[in-house]
Amino acid sequence: MMELEQAIMRPGVREALRKLAVEAIRGIFTGQVPEVPEDLIGLDERCGAFVTIKENGMLRGCIGFLRSDKSIPRAVMESARLSATEDPRFPPLTAREVDNIEVEITLLGEPFELDVSDGIRGKIRIGTHGLIVERGPYRGLLLPQVATEFGFDEEQFLEATCEKAGLPPGAWKKPGTRVYAFEGLVF
């Protein structure tokens, strides 16, 4: 995650990635696929990427990949297009909406399993860690910023991740449920 942070901290990189995400969304309507700009060439690290689309401060789409075999710019473009058109919670974005959206990008570090058998206190860093809960065919993922936006503590964050997975409250405490955390760079 450290190399990724250093690459993303280069001047202009974060803004160029956000602009690339918007151009990828705009390309849905123009038929043009944006070129990766020069200041992002060489950003070849592979990591998970999510793009969150908001319109007037309200969620309008959020899709991404836990892991990707694409470079960061390409993963961001694909996540942006999917967020605009494939999030089942929302109708596809329209061409008229593109000028009114804000995009937020989250780059994901490698997930690591948490042992929650003895509790969770001190194991989840609110605002830094995202969570994944898996049980049987059910899986839910929440990005790090969700806990901050809703004022969740560690347990509330886990419960919300269970809910996202379609699991009942407290499912994370049951044997057979797996809990993972990952670091996220949000910008």
TrEMBL record:
What residue stretches are annotated with the AMMECR1 domain?
Answer: 4-187
InterPro entries assigned: AMMECR1, AMMECR1_dom_sf, AMMECR1_domain, AMMECR1_N, AmmeMemoSam_A
Give the highest taxon in the source lineage: Archaea
| Family matches, as PROSITE patterns | AMMECR1
| Record Gene3D superfamilies | Hypothetical protein ph0010, domain 1 (3.30.700.20), Hypothetical protein ph0010, domain 2 (3.30.1490.150)
Q: Which NCBIfam families match?
A: AmmeMemoSam_A, TIGR00296 family protein
Q: Which PANTHER family match?
A: AMME SYNDROME CANDIDATE GENE 1 PROTEIN, AMMECR1 HOMOLOG
Please state what the protein is called: TIGR00296 family protein
